[in-house]
Amino acid sequence: MTRIVTVPTTPHEGQAPGTSGLRKKVRVFQQPGYAENFIQSVFDVVTPTPGATLVIGGDGRFHNRTVIQQAIRMAAANGYGRVLVGQGGILSTPAASHVIRKYGASGGLVLSASHNPGGPDEDFGIKYNIANGGPAPESVTAAIHARTTGIDRWLTVEAADVDLDRVGEAMVGEMTVQVIDPVADYADLMETLFDFDHIRKLVASGFTMRFDAMSAVTGPYAHEILERRLGFAPGTVVNGTPLEDFGGHHPDPNLIYAKELYDLMMGPQAPDLGAASDGDGDRNLIIGRGRFITPSDSLAMLAANIEIAPAYRGRLAGIARSMPTSGAADRVAEAFGVPCYETPTGWKFFGNLLDAGKVTICGEESAGTGSDHVREKDGLWAVLLWLNILAVRGISVDDLAKSHWARFGRNYYARHDYEGVDKADADALMAELLAALPSLPGTVFGPLVVAHADSFAYTDPVDHSVSANQGVRVLFEDGSRVVFRLSGTGTQGATLRVYLERYEAPSGHLDADTGVMLEAQVAAAEAAAGIVRHTGRIAPDVVT
Ligand code: G6P
Ligand code: ZN
């Protein structure tokens, strides 16, 4: 019998998982016992049945390998029978979700801070996913947090580090560790979902793309799927080698951090499709030649065409979107006669709907789209679905967007982010807004009249759990709206997000400038919330 070592510990403050697991600076994670306390709290809460399988993988950022070795030894001490870990410590978040499902694991540790920068002075994160492959629900994350506040020991075994770079098997204590190819299972799954032959024909006919992996986890996946399996020319995938610090960049596929791609797509040398993914591979950015597709529109356009892809033929059961995501998808759902669910921000809220077969596709304004093939959002999946649709319909991204708006109308949409705001200032702004809610209806802001204002609460239709206080909505009489929310994924101060939306019917202005179209909503947001007064900021840091 391997000796289990019990290491006494005391709680570390602030180990509450946020929107997407525990995220902190690397320096915080490097404190003695910090990661161990959290991982032990997870194991204490989920209490694996002896012999259970655990999946471990991360986005390859700085500190990934250290925590993986700690977690493997702790898993052995906590009774797991098998750990599956991606070669090099790599597993994209959607690939981890798939591996959990495919091999019947009881759960997985996903090591990532998603789109946040990496490196010794940047961010790290640990998230626990449950047996369905999705992020743990709030009941579980709350229990984990509670456990971190009372933890007094963690368990490990004395064992050497596992060689993560070689595919194969090793023993750690009584537990088997399988180092697996991180790409193969995922790439095979994609082939079962989409019409690769059709896409290959499109490529052969001269269709070009650029995929920016942002020096993050999707590089190896994109090389294998886009270049090797689909025949795109070598060089289609750029920044395709995962780096511990993402080359010093923000691996966030938006118009700020993927500006080079954006500029290319707006210029004369643009390929037919530009796409990018984030640090851990679950987000996506889609840009056609001369046409950026907002994530909210992408969800609606993919939902309207999803039945083109072989695995989805005749089975669009429903659509789900997070509350701040635009209502474009709702119009598709209405036209197709399927339900549309509005959930709080965070992919975990889609899990029950997907498990219950109530929805087939889900998406968020934060550049996430996915389906019931896994229980995470999936960046490359979205790119492949776009390719499949373009291949079969034989039109450009721009034409697809225009035909979509001509049928469903267009939801003009923007998000204004105020980053690194003083936490107390941000809290005061939200508190004041909440207090003002009852008096807002009827208030006139320029051309807009408030019809309804509330603090969004969600009752899960499957387990009936209630999540309150999920953002403030101000809805205007003309159908436009402004939403206020504090980010749940930041690691410094507070980030205020202001989401702005306005609908134009098919008979309206379908190709106008988004900034111009949303001027009244921007002014109303300032008037209602006093952003300048509370934060001292006269303009947002990021507009997406
Ligand atoms: C992560 C989650 C998403 C969520 C996003 C919101 O990426 O996986 O599901 O939409 O965080 O981030 P925020 O910073 O707005 O809380
Ligand atoms: Zn991510």
UniProtKB/TrEMBL annotation:
Top-tier EC class: isomerase
GO terms of molecular function: phosphoglucomutase activity
Keywords: Isomerase, Magnesium, Metal-binding, Phosphoprotein
Residue stretches making up the Alpha-D-phosphohexomutase alpha/beta/alpha domain: 15-151, 185-287, 296-408
Cited InterPro entries: A-D-PHexomutase_a/b/a-I, A-D-PHexomutase_a/b/a-I/II/III, A-D-PHexomutase_a/b/a-II, A-D-PHexomutase_a/b/a-III, A-D-PHexomutase_C_sf, A-D-PHexomutase_CS, Alpha-D-phosphohexomutase_SF, PGM
EC number annotated for this UniProt entry: 5.4.2.2
Pfam families in the record: PGM1_C_vert_fung (PF24947), PGM_PMM_I (PF02878), PGM_PMM_II (PF02879), PGM_PMM_III (PF02880)
Highest taxon, organism lineage: Bacteria
Disordered: annotated span: 1-21
Residue ranges the record marks as coiled coil: none
Reactions it catalyzes: alpha-D-glucose 1-phosphate = alpha-D-glucose 6-phosphate
Cofactor(s), by name: Mg(2+)
Entry-linked PANTHER family: PHOSPHOGLUCOMUTASE, PHOSPHOHEXOMUTASE FAMILY MEMBER
NCBIfam families: PRK07564.1-1
Family: Belongs to the phosphohexose mutase family.
Name of the protein described by the UniProt record: phosphoglucomutase (alpha-D-glucose-1,6-bisphosphate-dependent)
Organism expressing this protein natively: Novosphingobium clariflavum
